[in-house]
Structure formats: C-alpha cells, structure tokens
Amino acid sequence: MAWQNKQNRLLFLFEYTTVKYVGTQNKKIGLLYRIFQLTIMGYLIGWVFLKNKGYQVKDDTLESSVVTKAKGVARVNTTDSNLWGPEDYVFPNQGENFLSIATNFIETPNQKLGNCSENPEVPNNTCSKDEECTVGEAVRAGNGIKTGICLETHNGTCEIYGWCPTEIHRDPDPATIVREAENFTLYIRNFIRFSQLNFSTSNVPKENRSLYLKNCLYDETVCPYCPIFRLGDIVNKTGNKFEEMALKGGSIGVLIEWLCDLDVDSECRPHYSFVRLGSDVPVPIAINCLLRFARYFTDVAGDRRRIFYKVFGIHLEIMVFGMARKFCIIPTIVNIASALTLMAAVSM
Ligand SMILES: *[C@@H]1O[C@H](CO)[C@@H](O)[C@H](O)[C@H]1NC(C)=O
Ligand SMILES: *[C@@H]1O[C@H](CO)[C@@H](O)[C@H](O)[C@H]1NC(C)=O
Ligand SMILES: *[C@@H]1O[C@H](CO)[C@@H](O)[C@H](O)[C@H]1NC(C)=O
Ligand SMILES: *[C@@H]1O[C@H](CO)[C@@H](O)[C@H](O)[C@H]1NC(C)=O
Ligand SMILES: *[C@@H]1O[C@H](CO)[C@@H](O)[C@H](O)[C@H]1NC(C)=O
Ligand SMILES: *[C@@H]1O[C@H](CO)[C@@H](O)[C@H](O)[C@H]1NC(C)=O
Ligand SMILES: *[C@@H]1O[C@H](CO)[C@@H](O)[C@H](O)[C@H]1NC(C)=O
Ligand SMILES: *[C@@H]1O[C@H](CO)[C@@H](O)[C@H](O)[C@H]1NC(C)=O
C-alpha cells in the first residue's frame, strides 16, 4: 500500500493538460475578436514599430568635443590700437565649448601706480579724519591700499595707493560698440561619439572639406550643415537686436542636436539652434560685463603705465546633445513577443 501511494504522488510529474477550444459561429464574438486582433496588430506596427521604432536600440551616451575659432577684424578707437583681431576680442584665447567675444568696452587710459582718491561709489570708504583710514589696509571691493590720509576735499574718502586714476565708472557707450563684430564668423568643430553603438562622426562634411569650409556660411534653409556662423545671424536667431546685445553684453546658448538613425542614413547630421540665456532675469550692467583686463607699457619718462579695459560682449556656450538609434534583434523580438502575449490574452 505504502509504495503504491508514493507512486500516485509522483504521477503528477508526468501529467499534461491542454486548453480545450470552443468554436463558435457567433458573429458578434467573432467580430469582436477580429477587432481586438486588428487593434493589437495596429498597435504593434503603427505605434511600437513605426512611431517608437521598437526594432531599434537607443544610445544617448553622447561624448563630444568642441573647438571654436572666431575670425574677423574690427576698427576700434582705443589709446593703444585702432584695429582688433581675434587675439584681441576673443576670451579665452583657445576656443573651447564656451567663448566670449568683446563687442564694447570702457577704457581707462594711462593709469600709473601712485596715490589718489578712491572711487566714491566704493562702499564703506568714507572718513572724516585721517585716523579712520588705517595705513596698509586694502579697501574692500576697492582699487587699492589705504595710505592713512583722509581726503576731505573728495567728499571724505580715504586716499589709496594703486593704479591711478581709478577705473572710470559709467554705463557702456553706444559710440564705442565694435560694429564690425556683427560680421565676425565663428567656426565650430564638433566631434561626437555614441559609445554604446561605437559610432563616431563630426559636424564637418568629409568630402571636399577645405573647399566647403572656405565658401560656406550657415543659413537655416540654404546651408543648414555649414559649421561657420555669422555672429550677427546668431544674435538675430535668438530674437534679439545686435546693437542692443553688443552694447551691454549677453549670453547665448548654441545648441547642437544630433538625432541619428543609423539604419537610414549612416551620415547623421547635426541640427543647430540658438537661445538667449538669462534674458528673463534682469541683471545689473556690472554683471553683464565680461571681464576686465589691462595692457602694460612704459612711457617716455620710463614709468610703468597701463590701459585698463572693462569689456562687454557676447558670451557663447556650445551645448551638444543627442541620441542615436540602430536596428537590433533583441528589442524587436521582445516587442513582437509582448504583442503576441497580448493577442493570446485577448483570445482567452
Ligand atoms: C577717438 O576717440 C577720441 C576721444 O575718445 C576722439 O577725440 C577721436 O576723434 C576718436 N578718433 C576717431 C578716429 O574716431
Ligand atoms: C603715497 O603715500 C604714502 C603714504 O603717505 C607715501 O609714503 C608715498 O610716498 C606716496 N607715494 C607716492 C607715489 O606719492
Ligand atoms: C559697512 O560698514 C558698516 C559699519 O562699519 C557695516 O555694518 C556694514 O556691513 C559695512 N558694509 C559693507 C558692504 O561692508
Ligand atoms: C561730492 O559730493 C557732491 C554732492 O554729493 C558731488 O556733486 C561732487 O561731485 C562730489 N565730489 C567728488 C570729488 O566726488
Ligand atoms: C558686414 O558685411 C556686409 C557685406 O560684406 C557689409 O555690407 C556690411 O556693411 C558689414 N557690416 C558691418 C557692420 O561692417
Ligand atoms: C569601433 O569601431 C571601430 C571602427 O569603426 C573599430 O575599429 C573598433 O574595433 C570598434 N570598437 C568596438 C569596441 O567595437
Ligand atoms: C567635390 O569636389 C569635386 C571637384 O571640385 C566635385 O566634382 C565633387 O562633386 C565634389 N563632391 C561633393 C560631394 O560635393
Ligand atoms: C533678424 O533678421 C531678419 C532679416 O534680416 C529681420 O527681418 C529681423 O527683424 C531680425 N530680427 C531681429 C530681432 O533683429
């Protein structure tokens, strides 16, 4: 008895059940079934495969390197020069994925090391007697070191030792705008790689490269793949007036988007767009200022002197993003299988 019981218990291992199908001539149920089938087929083909490209793998691990080069010369009226080239107006000098182009400036000529009055706009530098001006103390947010003398004739500010006279404080002047900057060109070279799909390319066409680069200029409709841009066009595309932006400066984002379908077109192409950054936040002019720098020289008397520049300009930030797709058998099988599963569920 005992061994028979054991045998019965083990028998379930060798059991197999099948589903029993019931055929029916009911037109309503038949129609409903076909509609469900068609819906699922439509979903699979239309949505999963055509719309969402479910037969491809996506790769958004974009690695990118950007090199920029600005070109053009401009007439300027400064104490030390009347012509500016890229070496004068591009900051920093080696172009990367960000650069600034000077379009306006305020010049303080002929500064010399010595004693003079501090700019009265510098806060916390007022005094009524010499004791309030500690010798050797630096003026906070100021231009020099206190000499210990209170200059009552200058509305009571401490005298300083520094580059004198101090920087001229005023709003940027439309008369000093570097007008030719509108015609400066910016060459952007962008190498990208999708690491998962092991696909690399660049935004410069492979064929007739040097000839193409000599003659082309980016234009949304005529020449959308040319990597050379006119500064005036970039500003215009952001919906801003060049004169306005050149006067006080501003930031622009250059967006390079790569959407690559590697099945259709092995040469995937970039799409460029331009946005003004931070335009909805009102910023004081002092913050719009790009940078300050000085040029040093020795005058005829042998004294060290310098010309001090406060520069306004257009700051460009180049941002690269994108995605590549390519056929792959695994997502294809997974998507078909899930649709078949759905269909099987419907027949239940
Ligand atoms: C340059 O500027 C100075 C004053 O800042 C002016 O006197 C001079 O006429 C200007 N020169 C030119 C060529 O515009
Ligand atoms: C500046 O003032 C200090 C302190 O009064 C004095 O020692 C120094 O000689 C002055 N320098 C010049 C260039 O006048
Ligand atoms: C200016 O000095 C006053 C009093 O010494 C101090 O309360 C204030 O915080 C200072 N302001 C700045 C901007 O340093
Ligand atoms: C002193 O202050 C008066 C009025 O606040 C101003 O008109 C004048 O220009 C100031 N002088 C200096 C040297 O800053
Ligand atoms: C920019 O170049 C065009 C054509 O070369 C010229 O007509 C225009 O005057 C230039 N603009 C400036 C501000 O120099
Ligand atoms: C990536 O592609 C290059 C040529 O296109 C090939 O030489 C290299 O072996 C590939 N690397 C991987 C990891 O597949
Ligand atoms: C490259 O230049 C040659 C000669 O200038 C021309 O025949 C050829 O069509 C050009 N190729 C492309 C892709 O423009
Ligand atoms: C941009 O340029 C077009 C054509 O030159 C001009 O019609 C438009 O007013 C410009 N936009 C701005 C904001 O200056």
Automatic annotation (TrEMBL):
Molecular function as annotated in GO: ATP binding; extracellularly ATP-gated monoatomic cation channel activity; purinergic nucleotide receptor activity
Glycan-carrying positions: 183
Entry's Gene Ontology cellular component terms: plasma membrane; postsynapse
Membrane topology: Multi-pass membrane protein
Keywords on record: ATP-binding, Cell membrane, Disulfide bond, Glycoprotein, Ion channel, Ion transport, Ligand-gated ion channel, Membrane, Nucleotide-binding, Transmembrane, Transmembrane helix, Transport
First-listed, main subcellular location of the protein, grouped into a coarse class: membrane
Listed transmembrane segments: 31-50
Cell location: Cell membrane
Gene3D superfamilies: atp-gated p2x4 ion channel, atp-gated p2x4 ion channel domain
GO biological process, one term: calcium ion transmembrane transport
Catalytic activity: Ca(2+)(in) = Ca(2+)(out)
Cystine residue pairs: 116-164, 127-150, 133-158, 216-226, 260-268
Residues noted as binding ATP in the record, renumbered to the chain: 69-71, 185, 310
PANTHER family per the UniProt record, alphabetical: P2X PURINOCEPTOR, P2X PURINOCEPTOR 5
Stated family: Belongs to the P2X receptor family.
Name of the protein in its database record: P2X purinoceptor 5-like
Organism the protein comes from: Sinocyclocheilus rhinocerous
